[in-house]
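Hey, can you fold this?
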Amino acid sequence: MFERFTKDARDVVKGAYVYVEGSGGGGRCVEPEHLLLALLDREGSRGSFALAALGLGERRESVREALREARRRAGLTQAETDALAGLGIDVAEIVARVEETHGVGALAGDRTDKRWWSGRTSFGREAKGVLERSLRVALAQRDRHIGDEHILLALTAGPGVPAEVLADHGVTYASLVRVLYGSGGEAQAG
C-alpha cells in the first residue's frame, strides 16, 4: 500500500513517527493523533491547503491543545467523557488523582521513565485503520495515489479524538470533500 503514497503522504507518516519518538508525543505507537499533528505541520500540500481553506491555519495551536487535553484523559473523546459523567464518573477527577500520584501525563503514556520499553516504534491499531481508510477514501474519489489529503479525510471519516477535535474546529469529512473536490465528490469511504 505504501507504494501508492505520494511524497506528502509519506512525509505525514514520517512526521507521525517523529512525534512518537521525539518529545512531542510520548508513547511507543503511532496513533491517529500523531498523524493529525504531522498534518498540522505540513505546508504547501493539498491537505494543508484544505485546512487553511477551512480556517484552521490560524487555529492550529488550538487543535494541538485539544489533542493534549484528550491525551491527558487517556485518549477519551469528549463524547465518551460526557457519557461517563452521565454514569456518575468524573473523568477530570480521575485524571487529577492519577496525576497527583503518578505525575502529569500518567494516563497519556507521557512518562519520562521509559526504561521498560526498548522496542521499535510501531503503528497502533487505530492508526493502521486510518491508513487503510485513506486508501478507501482515495479509491472512492477515483484518485490513483494516496495523498496527505486522503489521510486527513480518513481521520475525519472515522471515530475518535482527531475527528472530534477537527469537527469542533469546523473541519468535517463533508467540508473537506467540498474544498478538495467541489460539490461533486460526496462519496463517503467507510
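Oh, and this one too while you're at it.
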Amino acid sequence: MGRTRLYRNGRLEKEGFPVSEVSDHIRDPSAVVWFDMCAPTEDDLLAISEELGLHRLAVEDALQRRQRPKLDVYDSHMFMSVYSVAFDRDTGRLEAFHAAAFITANALVTVRGSDGFSIDEVMRRWDDEPSLTGHGVAFLVHGLLDYVVDNHFEAVEAADEQVETLEEAVFGDHPLGAGDQRRTFELRKSLVTLRRIVMPMREVVNTLIRRNGKIGDSEMAPYFQDVYDQVLRAEEWTDSLRDLLGNIRETHLTMQGNRMNLIMKRVTSWAAIIAVPTLITGFYGQNIPFPGFGHTAGFWTSTALIVVVSVVFYRVFRSRDWL
C-alpha cells in the first residue's frame, strides 16, 4: 500500500486511496495523480508500467540502486533519478538515499529505495504551496526537486562548518590527533560523494527547464530556474570545500614537517650542549695525570669550562632560534 494523492482542477481532492484506483483517475484529463512506492519489487513496477506506458529501460533503472542522477526523456514519459543525503556532523560521513520518478502528462510516480528519502518533506512542500497546484505535474516535480536540492544544500552547509572547525584546529596550539585526522579523511570522502550527486543535478534541472512543455506551462519556469540557481550554488560550494580541505591537509602536513624540524633542532642543540660536560669530565676522568690532578683547582677549572662553554653554546643556538 503506497501513498496516493489526487488533484483535480488545481485542488487536492483525495489522498490515501488504494493504488488499484490510480488507473481510473489517470483516464480523467482534469486529474493529476501521485503515488509513491517504497522498495518495490520488479513485479510491482511491471504492474503499473503497462498502465502508464513506462519504458522497460526506465523500469530497470528504477530498480537499480547505483544510478547517477539523471533525466531520461521517452515518448510517453520522463524518468528521473535523484538522491537525498544525510550528513553526520560527528563522524563527517555522508549517506545517500536513492529515489526514482516516472513523470507523465498527468501522473507522478515516485519509487524510493528506503525510508531514508523523506517523502513527508516532499509532501510538506506541496502543502506549503497550494497556489501552485493548478500547474499539475510540474508543481509536483518542482516540490520533489526543491526538497532534493535543499537537502544537498543543507549537507554542504554542515560540511562547511566541519571544514571551518578543522581549519581552526590546524592552527591551534595542539596538533591534530588521530580522531581529527580520521574525521578529515571521512569528510573528504563525503565531499567526493556529494559532488558526484550534486554535479549531475545541473543537467537534470536544465533539461526540465528546456522540456517544460511536456509537463506543464511556462509559468513554472521561474520556479525551476530558482532550483537551478540553488544547484549551481551547491555545486560551486562543494568544489570550493574540496579545494579548501585539500589545502588544509597540505598545510597540516607542512606544519607537521616544520614542527618536526624544530624539534630536531632543539634536540640537536641540547645534545651539543650536553656533549660539552661529557667531553670535559671524560677527559679529566682518564687514568693519567692532568693539569690540576689531585688538586682542588683542577675540579674548579673543569667546572668553569663546563659552565662557560655550555652558556656560549646556549646563547649561539638561542640567537639562531634553535632553542
